[in-house]
Amino acid sequence: MLVVQIVLLHVALHNRPPVGAQYSINKPFAGMEEGDSYVTRPFNFWQWRSRKPYWQFVLYFTGVLAILEVLIGFNFAYVGFQGYFALGVEAILPIPQVLENERRRSCKGFRLSVLANWLVGDVFKMTYFFLSEGEVPLAFKACGLIQTVCDCYLGIQYWRFGSGEKGQEEEKDSRLA
């Protein structure tokens, strides 16, 4: 799984449009204004223009986790914290998409097939969590419910806003004309 994620990051970074002239549509985040996002990311986290910061972050993050694993990997509190943190991150993954859809009042660019797969996955997950004969920890059930609620709200947004305005062609950048 980790190898696949590294390969996907490499492909995504390698196939990004090159940084063009100032204010070009090929310059990532060039048109963003200060108020375009709900939260300004410190150090433009994960919105860097060059490839190097992405790989530096991945290496530093991996190094820090490896050192922590060697030093305190036997500590139940540390292992528990890692587990709860991972569950929490997984539970709130849909929230940025929910906020962006609300901000734009549209689900343009968000594929219905992605939503359908998320909802089907939620059904299977909730079925297992609540109907299995074995004991499923409360943290899994709670985080699963949070994620399911977020995914269902994405479904409501898709119903409310649709996938974009009907009849609207892709907007062309006037600077290209």
TrEMBL record:
**Which keywords belong to this entry?**
Membrane, Signal, Transmembrane, Transmembrane helix
Signal peptide positions are 1-21
What's the chief localization of this chain?
A: membrane
GO CC annotations on file: cytosol; endosome; membrane; trans-Golgi network
- Record's subcellular location: Membrane
Note the InterPro entries from the entry: PQ-loop_rpt, SLC66/Scramblase_ANY1
GO biological process, alphabetically ordered: phospholipid translocation; retrograde transport, endosome to Golgi
Q: What Pfam family does this protein match (any one)? A: PQ-loop
Q: How does it sit in the membrane?
A: Multi-pass membrane protein
Q: Which domain of life is it from?
A: Eukaryota
Q: Which residues cross the membrane?
A: 54-78
- What name goes with this protein? PQ-loop-domain-containing protein
